[in-house]
Amino acid sequence: MTNESHQRPDISDFEFIRLIGSGSYGDVWLARTESGTYRAVKLVRRGRFENDAPFEREFGAIRVYGDLSLAHPALVDILHVGRTENAYHYVMYLADPLEGTEPAPAQSYRPRTLSAVLAEKGRLPIREAVEVVVHLLSGLAVLHNAGRLHRDIKPGNVLYRKGQPVLADVGLMKMADEEASYVGTPGYLPPEGPESPAADIYAMGMLLYVMVSGFKPKDYPSAPTLDELGEQRLFASINGILEKACAPVPGKRYASAEEMRADLVDCAELESGTEPESSGSARARTTLPWLRCVGIALTNRMRALYREFVRSRAFKALRRHPELLKTLFALAMLALVVVPYALDAYRHQDRSAIARDESSPLRPKQVASAFKAYQQELQRQPPDMAEVIISMRKLANLCLEEGLYAEARLYLQGLVTALDPMPGMEKVVEEMRGRLRDIERVAGR
After folding, report:
1. What confidence score (pLDDT) does residue 340 get?
2. Spans of all domains in the chain
3. CATH number of 2-270
């Protein structure tokens, strides 16, 4: 098997340069197209499987994933799927280089993976790690909603593409109701095995633990000793999320990737040193300080009035009516109790608005990153239309998720205009038009 895996593949249109990665079922090669463009090509050989059934199943999974890969920027893009007699392969964009900004593939190129980043840094700042997992969870939700599992989430299977983390090694995916060989990586596998969405949630929780602690999965649930007080506080705030994601019993874990993502977004925002840029956060910055100032002023004024009242003839007169005095005192105490609770409830409501997905500080960052990638593709000479279309589609999806309907409509209309004349794009165009109709319905409410 070893000799076979190191044999240089013979696939038309590609010059295979060297092996850059290897896994349980396939090898990743650095390859160059006839036009001189570098690509990553994963080759999965029939000899790695016990029989034809799992091989055919994985080949079918990667063909389906080719369409899913364009649905979210957290999923690695599949540009082409092909097959020979004893193997199948799929073509991907190269990941960012581990060192520098421009790859020198034939000489020293190494893909930037989360595993390589952790080997270099030890651990990631907690906010950065949360951003990575929030982004990956949104991609994992797309897989799960399509009825598919990943089954091998780990740092080595998280690549960076244009600065954004993406889930890779999609050849291990399967339908949630299919039988499959027992795969995965020790430490990231839950006790029951990898055959359910809850297992992917467990692996994602363990991924977050490894990133924020610098420890190995076998060290869980040991808590790290962090030098910075802010980091220690943040770890304490996400520890409950880790415990739920990595619960040994599947039923006690998060019910979905979206649920875990929502808790992380909420936690990241409430512990953030800066308010998110959203309507809710703007209200929090302006309203809550104003309420504090008014509260302090009212308290001082009430103290002054109380001192004047005690010295007044009215107070002496009220002393002759103890029942009325008790009633006024009770009303004053009630106000002192109710007002703080009302203010706290208002603040909690305001923070809840900040914590909603649509006002997440992470979403605008993803939109900005996708827009930057889109601009870069347009500025290429000559532009690669395939990449431009992929960038526009991802940008439209992110804008839809963010609720930026005007921007999403703009990109979707551009996609329809660009793809409508192309043969074989009828399904994609109809999908885009369906989303435009959805936008019109939502915007018309």
Report:
1. 52
2. 2-270, 279-358, 362-443
3. 1.10.510.10
